[in-house]
């Protein structure tokens, strides 16, 4: 808190300036007169030089009148408190001054007791402003210190409470997060239990979860992300930007390399819709729980599809031979556990990549067909239209048109 507030007396009559200076108990009020001015121009210069807190301003001054002076002060020192000194015949000017947010006024001839009361009131305003500013600064400091936790808490509320769009936008702005839906919503699950028994103490479990979060941050360091844990202990990820599949796949592989544990992940695109974020979280959560119930055989088959879908010769028969089991058995157990046939999942993986290439590249159709594992453009077009409902060319044109809008 400032010990003494700095005061200027601006009046073209020296006798009035002296009378004010001598008649007010400045120290008792916590005030100090640091300068005097006899015209508006001098007052403006001295006010800026001394950074005064309170100005006593006569409205009728030469060179620059009081109203013009107040206008300049309000532009340059908006927090300065201004008390105008006015005569009865200048009351119309006083009304104009009040429009400029002066803090009080006193009539000539100046009554010392009345002026002292006004100055005490203005000093109290200054003290209250400083106290409020200090509290706001302290609150701001605390918010900044806990920004990560506040973001995590909001994101958890977002997926649990389904807040209105206006509330989401307000919170995104307050927490200095991108003013749009995350492009990807992801869930990471560590199926640590087997046979109903956890192999880790709670302390070790928390350390490993913390290590996983660090790995996630490192793998996605080029993107704006928020990660947090839901009530069931899943790590939830909001990602702004679109990482390549390889970057997302690096997360579970890096965790396996460094921590020697297996995790399951699922990432879903929001399409930029804020309202879909809670829904996508639910879908991703269900997906990782379904994945955890897959047998090692089906999980390995899925990994083969996801990493080798671009191989034209990839087939159910070839994978069954590679895994040393019968084609019939693999077909049956895969459909039973994954909920889709081997061919259905392979086609889905290829079409998903085709959608990206159609939107993000200028590759010709036969080049896209080759990249995703189709031997001919015709076969690719047929499969694409069956899955998406329109031809690859139509999809590309509609995507370009959508971007241009």
Structure overview:
The protein is of the alpha/beta class and 405 residues long. The protein is built from 18 helices and eleven strands. The protein is elongated and about 110 Å long. About 1% of the residues have low confidence.
Number of strands: 11
Oligomer: single chain
Summarize the amount of helix as a percent range: 55-70%
What share of the residues does DSSP label as strand, in percent? 5-15%
Query: Which stretches are low in confidence, meaning pLDDT under 50 for 5 or more residues running?
Result: 193-197
User: Termini distance?
Assistant: 55 Å
Shape: elongated
Tally of separate helices? 18
**Rg over C-alpha atoms, rounded to the nearest angstrom:** 36 Å
Spell out the helices and strands N to C.
EHHEHEHEHEHHHEEEHEEHEHHHHHHHH
Largest sheet: 5 strands, parallel
Q: Indicate the structural class.
A: alpha/beta
Mean pLDDT: 87
How would you write the strand order of the largest sheet? 2-1-3-4-5
Domain HTH araC/xylS-type: 299-398
Pfam families: HTH_18, Response_reg
Subcellular location: Cytoplasm
Protein name: Response regulator
């Amino acid at each position: 808190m400032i010990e003494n507030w700095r005061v200027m007396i601006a009046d073209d009559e020296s006798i009035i300036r002296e009378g004010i200076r001598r008649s007010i108990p400045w120290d008792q009020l916590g005030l100090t007169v640091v300068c005097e001015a006899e015209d508006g121009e001098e007052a403006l210069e001295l006010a800026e030089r001394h950074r005064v807190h309170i100005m006593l301003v006569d409205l009728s001054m030469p060179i620059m009148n009081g109203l013009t002076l107040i206008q300049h002060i309000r532009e340059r020192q908006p927090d300065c408190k201004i008390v105008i000194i006015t005569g009865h015949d200048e009351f119309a000017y006083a009304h104009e001054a009040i429009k400029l947010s002066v803090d009080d006024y006193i009539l000539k001839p100046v009554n010392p007791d009345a002026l002292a009361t006004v100055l005490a009131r203005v000093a109290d305003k200054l003290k209250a402003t400083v106290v409020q500013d200090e509290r706001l600064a302290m609150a701001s400091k605390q918010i900044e210190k806990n920004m990560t936790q506040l973001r995590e808490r909001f994101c958890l509320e977002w997926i649990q409470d389904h807040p209105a769009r206006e509330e989401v936008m307000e919170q995104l702005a307050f927490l200095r997060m991108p003013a749009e839906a995350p492009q990807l919503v992801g869930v990471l699950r560590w199926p640590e239990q087997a046979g109903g028994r956890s192999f880790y103490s709670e302390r070790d479990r928390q350390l490993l979860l913390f290590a996983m979060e660090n790995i996630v941050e490192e793998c996605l360091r080029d993107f704006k992300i928020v990660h947090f844990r839901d009530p069931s202990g899943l790590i939830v990820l909001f990602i702004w930007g679109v990482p390549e599949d390889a970057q997302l796949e690096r997360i579970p592989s890096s965790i396996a390399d460094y921590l020697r544990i297996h995790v399951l992940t699922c990432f879903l695109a929001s399409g930029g819709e804020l309202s879909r974020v809670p829904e996508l979280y639910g879908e991703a959560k269900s997906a990782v729980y379904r994945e955890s119930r897959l047998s090692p055989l089906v999980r390995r088959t899925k990994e083969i599809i996801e990493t080798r879908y671009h191989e034209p010769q990839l087939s159910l028969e070839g994978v069954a031979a590679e895994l040393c089991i019968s084609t019939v058995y693999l077909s049956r157990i895969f459909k039973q556990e994954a909920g889709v046939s081997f061919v259905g999942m392979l086609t889905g993986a290829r079409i998903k990549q085709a959608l990206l290439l159609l939107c993000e590249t200028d590759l010709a159709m036969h080049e896209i067909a080759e990249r995703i594992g189709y031997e001919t453009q015709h076969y690719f077009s047929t499969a694409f239209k069956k899955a998406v409902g329109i031809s690859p060319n139509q999809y590309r044109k509609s995507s370009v048109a959508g971007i241009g809008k």
